[in-house]
Design brief:
The protein is of the alpha/beta class. It has a single domain, classed as NAD(P)-binding Rossmann-like Domain (Rossmann fold), CATH 3.40.50.720. Helices cover 50% and strands 15% of the residues. Helix 1 (19-30) crosses helix 7, helix 3 packs parallel to helix 4 and helix 4 (107-135) runs parallel beside helix 5 (158-176). The longest helix is centred in the middle third of the chain and has 29 residues, at 107-135. It is globular, with a radius of gyration of 19 Å. The chain starts with 9 loop residues before the first strand and ends with a helix.
Length: 268
Amino acid sequence: MVSTIKKDTYALVTGGSSGIGLAFVRQLAEKGYHICIVSNQKEQLPILESEIAAKYGVKCTSLFIDLAQDTAAEQVHEFCKNNQLEIEVLINNAGFLIADEFVHVAPQKITALLKLHTLTPTLLCQLIAQDMIVKKKGYILNISSTSAHMPYPLISLYGPSKAYIRNFTLAIRNELYSKNIHVSCILPGAVDTSLYNLEASKIKLAKRLGIMHSPEYIAKKGLSILFRNKAILVPGFLNKLSLVFLKIVPDFAIRKLLNWWNRSKEKK
């Protein structure tokens, strides 16, 4: 589908070569934005550049980079400056899941997750918001997770890092509100991406029950709150409902589930 509303500005999407990020890329291109995909999936980038440009009639460029580097945000910003990309929309989406007891996780992997989920999006928000202030217009959407409200074992690194993104987003939203910059945060639950190694039948059932959503659904909801200048959204009725109950689960029940998990692993 070729876009009918042409824009002179770009939307930058981190982790934009697959999953939720790619859904954001497609929907923003459909709205007429030129696209800048930032990703560590090198092989996908030239393919997507051609595909997005041909399908939506917009420009599409990309940057291959490891966003867990200390200077990743500065490198992305410099790339935009050097290529004269005026970023009107920033989607901080890149991330990965660690599902294990933190004492067993390699320190390098912990460092990479924390930098990718907290340091890089924070600095990207700062650098690109500075440019947006000059232009007196901009949109920033940060992707958190329902796990931000779940200080649970096995996601002891993922959940708290997403809690930071949620709280950081709400804080800078108030700082940038009067500068005509919309800042929003979406907290998805389970999403049908490669993050979960599930059988197709189980994914289909989870989606039918409303436990899991498609990347396209999450992207649509995220852009909706962003362009309507809404602060935060937990998409899906069951996700909203689950947060009420998850907050009151007693510690002993959590420990019993953890013990069951460990025993099931030992039997394999």
